[in-house]
From TrEMBL:
Protein name: Deoxyribodipyrimidine photolyase-related protein
Family annotation (PANTHER family): SLR1343 PROTEIN
Region named Disordered: 150-185
Keyword Lyase: yes
GO MF annotations, alphabetized: lyase activity
Biased composition (Basic and acidic residues): 162-172
Lyase keyword on record: yes
Membrane-spanning ranges: none
One Pfam family cited in the UniProt record for this chain: DPRP
Alphabetical keyword list: Lyase
Length: 501
């Protein structure tokens, strides 16, 4: 007997709730494409393309089951789609969106989907910390145990919970790219053509403005593409993922990374299927434990941890600024002007963001975030930049990652130390420094590395706080022994804050 969808009700899908796990059986589906979303923020063009392409692909898959509305705002779209009829929606992924739907009398908010850990389980774990610091490693172990992930009985597979020390190899010397198969590449279709034409038209009319370059599309826009990308990663790239997880090569933007974060954050993939596929590869002997554990830690550990801390800390968390940083983002950075930058690591990374809207976690943290931290840029502005300029960037992703980890603006609620480093780290973990105009070992003079000089200026600026942190106290002692400290600080003070290094 056929079900009457009008009796089953109406269910609203946001643009990051596109997988089958966000549907309600038999309900009529409502999707709203809001132009105001792109007016409020200057998004990366490739991000806007991916978002719209993914939504329109989902609508095409759902066929006559969906009412797809293009409107100025979500409120306008909901009025066009359902009038004042009741509608359900799964818990949205931002404070603003949750506040909006809870303010609509006709909307019933259902529990969140797309994550392994339920809110009540996280609350129990947080309470068990007894008011102490909420550390990811403890949370990650709890998730592994609760979900029987990579466990042998009550012990972690291989006898260790964390194989991070095995996953810090520098890139192979003399190689421009890793000896691994290329990542899965989706094919554009007529929907992508329509999206690109719409974005072109909106830009020409002055209706919206973007940064960065658009296309060809590199990331899945549909469930079938996302499933193929997951399978390709597990079969071809997961085995070498762990070994070079933290390494950087100038000509290899993808390395062995999965490139699945955008698919996960659009809701096209469920984290459970990703970690289960990785574990199956280990159990079958097709991928080593260090790679599989490293990947599972990213998905079942860090991603879950960031999601739950976003809600645990609440909206006021975005105002955190423990270091008192308030410098504005310079125009070359905000505009992704890689050609304005001499430092090869920063120029290369900015060009990759400009061209693709994506770089992996080490360039994000140790090149982009490290530079912003050293220069004292406003952490809220840095967070907004990451949100807008990355295809996998959403408020819940970037707020805790940037405020808490990258910029240390919460004073250590998430991490035990600021992620600031000199050029030596970048030199060790990449091939970027060799042809650079600057030298990672020099902190003064014309060839002084901006990261090395900037690191010591950062330590000096925050020496009082850092001297009381057991993980950074040694850096303060080293600072006090620098014979050229006055020259380092003088160079920093004379540096034009709006100029590229």
């Amino acid at each position: 007997m056929a079900h009457d969808r009008s009796e089953a009700g109406r269910h609203w899908l946001f643009g990051d709730q596109l997988g089958p796990h966000f549907l309600r059986p038999d309900a009529e589906i409502v999707m709203i494409e809001s132009r105001a979303v792109f007016r409020r923020r200057r998004f990366h063009r490739a991000k806007a393309h991916l978002m719209l392409s993914a939504m329109r692909h989902r609508a095409a898959e759902l066929g006559d089951r969906v009412r797809y509305v293009r409107a100025e705002t979500y409120r306008d779209g909901l009025e066009q789609a359902v009038g004042d009829a009741p509608v359900t929606v799964h818990h949205p992924t931002s404070h603003a969106a949750l506040g909006f739907v809870r303010g609509l009398r006709q909307v019933e908010v259902l529990p969140p989907r797309g994550f392994l850990v339920q809110p009540d389980a996280f609350a129990r774990w947080a309470e068990s910390a007894g008011g102490g610091q909420l550390r990811m490693e403890s949370f990650y172990r709890q998730v592994r145990q609760d979900h029987d992930l990579l466990m042998d009985g009550d012990q972690p597979a291989g006898g260790r919970w964390n194989l991070d020390k095995d996953n810090r190899e520098p890139p192979p010397k003399g190689e421009a790219t890793l000896p691994v198969p290329a990542p899965y590449r989706p094919r554009e279709d007529e929907i992508d053509e329509e999206v690109r034409a719409d974005l072109d038209r909106w830009e020409r009319s002055g209706d919206v403005a973007f940064v960065g370059r658009d296309g060809p599309r590199l990331f899945p826009a549909g469930r079938a593409e996302a499933r193929r990308a997951l399978r390709a990663f597990v079969e071809k790239r997961l085995p070498t993922f762990g070994r070079w997880e933290d390494a950087i090569l100038a000509e290899d933007w993808a390395m062995s990374h999965s490139l699945l974060s955008a698919s996960l954050n659009l809701g096209l993939l469920d984290p459970a299927e990703c970690v289960e596929a990785a574990e199956d590869a280990y159990r079958a002997g097709d991928a080593p434990l260090n790679s599989v554990e490293g990947y599972i830690r990213q998905v079942a550990g860090w991603r879950e941890y960031m999601w739950h801390l976003y809600w645990h800390f609440g909206p006021r968390y975005r105002e955190s600024n423990a270091l008192g940083h308030d410098a504005p983002l310079p125009g070359w950075f905000a505009g992704l002007d890689a050609d304005a930058v001499q430092a090869r690591c920063l120029s290369t990374t900015l060009a990759q963001v400009r061209d693709r809207g994506w770089v992996h976690h080490i360039p994000r943290l140790m090149i982009l975030g490290n530079h912003a931290l050293q220069r004292g840029w406003d952490p809220a502005a840095v967070t907004d930049w990451f949100h807008r300029c990355f295809v996998d960037g959403y408020d819940w992703v970037m707020l805790t990652n940037v405020i808490g980890m990258s910029q240390y603006a919460d004073g250590g609620r998430i991490t035990t130390k600021p992620y600031a480093s000199g050029g030596a780290y970048i030199n060790t973990m990449s091939d970027l420094c060799g042809p650079c105009a600057y030298r990672p070992t020099e902190r003064t003079g014309e060839r002084a590395c901006p990261y090395t000089a900037g690191y010591w200026e950062f330590v000096h600026r925050h020496r009082e706080r850092l001297s009381h942190n057991y993980r950074t106290a040694r850096a303060v002692k080293q600072l006090e022994r620098l014979s050229d400290l006055d020259e380092v600080l003088g160079d920093a003070r004379s540096r034009d804050p709006d100029a590229a290094p």
